Amino acid sequence: MAHNNFTGLLKSGIGRLSNLQILQIHGNSFSGPLPGELGNLTSLMLLNLGQNQFSGTIPVEFSNISSLQSLLIGNNNLEGEIPDEIFELKQLTELYLMNNKFVGSILNSLSRLEQLSRLDLSGNRFNGSIPDSLRKLNKLISIDLSHNLLMGSISGSVIAGMKNTPIFLNFSNNFLTGSISNEFGELEMVESIDISNNNLSGGIPVTLQKCKNLRNLDVSGNQLSGSVPEEIFPPLDLLSSINFSRNQFDGEIPGTMANLTRLTSIDLSHNKFKGLIPESFGNISVLKHLDLSFNQLEGRVPDTGIFRNITAVGLQGNPSLCITNNTQLCASSSRSKRSLSRKAVLILSILGSLALLLVFILAVLCCRHVRKPKVKEPENPELPEHTAGFTLKRFDRKEVEDATDNFSEGNILGTTSLSTVYKGRLEDGRMIAVKILNINQFSAESDKSFNKEMNTLGKLRHRNLVKVLGYAWESGKLKALVLEYMENGDLDRIIHDSAIDRSRWDLSERVDVLVSVARGLMYLHSGYDFPIVHCDLKPSNILLDEKWDAHVSDFGTARILGVHQQDGGNISSASTFQGTIGYLAPEFAYMKKLTTKVDVFSFGIIMMEFITRKRPTGVLTEEEGIQITLPQLIDQALSNGLNELIEIVDPHLASNFSTKQGFIEQLLNLALCCTKMNPEDRPDMNEVLSSLTKIS
């Protein structure tokens, strides 16, 4: 019954199904209170009521289901305190209460759930401190207490008690204080630690070097200070993501950090790091994101590796950095800055005199200009208004015709009802893609929108967006975008073309593509002056360059048609923009309600499609031959276990499946979260990216 459109109350009569062992009705729109009669289902082992709109409290009758192993009631509107009776369910291995409105403290009674392996209480209003009783849960492999109102310190005894168990630990986004205890180093099995966005102080304990399985470490958004110990990093050779941003760290960036060859993301921004940037950062071949902005770094910026892609590195807010290959020039610049103070008085005096002289000259010129009669400039009917705001090159028709051999059919890369894309070559030899918009779909009124959006597109710069190089425009005749050319085509071809060599597309490569797309979307949603919603994200709009790095394309077409987020999140119903069936979020398809969560839904579908190689619509079940959606297929497979999961994934991922199963399950569960019916229940792209980087 999961992932349908069921609404209304859950009837009390369900309590008469006394032999029921599994009940999964998640992903619907049930509302009202949870019936206490569910407590009569004493044979239940799995109860999944998540992703609905249930309200009220947890019925104490649930404590009667003594055989219950999994209680999953996250993503509802439940409230109140957790009944103490729930902790009598001694067989519970999974307790998911996330994203509700639960209040009160996390009870010490939790320790009675001795079999508990996964605990998620995130996204509620729990207060008080982290209970000491957690140290007794020696089978926990995952604990998430993030996004609550927890206060106090993270007890060293609690952490020490978990030393052989937790693999994923998330205490982020609370009000925790105190220091990071040395006992964190005893978490020998831990793969991910997220204690970001609290009020923690002190430094990074050297004992963290003992967490040799650690892959993701996020301590951002605290009040941590001091230098980061060099000796921490050499043993942590599995680390792929480090986030120390928005703290008060000082001293030099540890060179040993730059020797970790598996790092894909490093964020040290908004601290007080000093000295030079380690040259060895440029030697990390898999590094795709490096943010060193807003520190006190100085000297020459390296020019190898990731530093060759300036959009992948954040350097702003370091006024003493020198971006040049000329070492002598950097040294000269540095000496000049140091000597500035000794000459300040003389320089300011000279500049003051020059300024007065300049004001006098300008006054004379202005007087002369006023006496001149104005000559009206000839109008150019072909040019839109306000072209002064454009930052893109304007190509004329002949240039794009020559580049594409007069729009030769042999150069067509793709076509839709809205546009046709041609491969082209400029006179200087550069390869480009020319996107010719279908004039019949773009009314004359869209000229103003086209002009405005060209101005916006010219300002968007991110390594995971296809770069817009320019445009061509003739009123009522031609609207075209000139884009950078992507050598390896689009993701749709990679997924579905049987001629593609799939040996290079293992799980890690697929996750890399998804991470790149997520970064591009996050920039569109939150990296510009206002949120930009793509509206038509799909595999054919994800392009791959010569290095197989992913870039989001076609993020301007919807806006040119006038589709953009307005007050209340609605768009004009007169828009000709329809999106693509299968990737459309329901609120956009049926109600024309537009928020950034529309793109999150599409991204979730793409995740599923990339893992399964199945189109998002018209999926047939083998047994009944009934058409279901891709999210429904995924949800069924995850519920039914290993054998069915192997059946639905891409056969090229099925080999050595046991080593990948956990990662694939995490990816597909994240995809299901992205495709929830209620947009408010979906994560934003920042949260999606955070989850993906932890999986990778």
UniProtKB/TrEMBL annotation:
Taken from the record, one Pfam family name reads LRR_1
Q: Name one GO biological process term.
A: response to other organism
Q: Which InterPro entries match?
A: Kinase-like_dom_sf, Leu-rich_rpt, Leu-rich_rpt_typical-subtyp, LRR_dom_sf, Plant_LRR-RLKs, Prot_kinase_dom, Ser/Thr_kinase_AS
Subcellular compartments: Cell membrane
Give the Gene3D superfamilies listed for this entry: Phosphorylase Kinase, domain 1, Ribonuclease Inhibitor, Transferase(Phosphotransferase) domain 1
Q: Can you cite an annotated GO cellular component?
A: plasma membrane
Q: Where are the transmembrane segments?
A: 344-365
Q: Which residues form the Protein kinase domain?
A: 407-696
Molecular-function GO terms, alphabetical: ATP binding; protein kinase activity; receptor serine/threonine kinase binding
**Primary subcellular site in the record, as a coarse category:** membrane
Q: How does it sit in the membrane?
A: Single-pass membrane protein
- Write the signal peptide boundaries: none
Task: Supply the alphabetized keyword list.
Answer: Cell membrane, Glycoprotein, Leucine-rich repeat, Membrane, Repeat, Signal, Transmembrane, Transmembrane helix
Q: Which family does it belong to?
A: Belongs to the RLP family.
Protein's name in the database:
Protein kinase domain-containing protein
Q: Which organism is it from?
A: Lactuca virosa
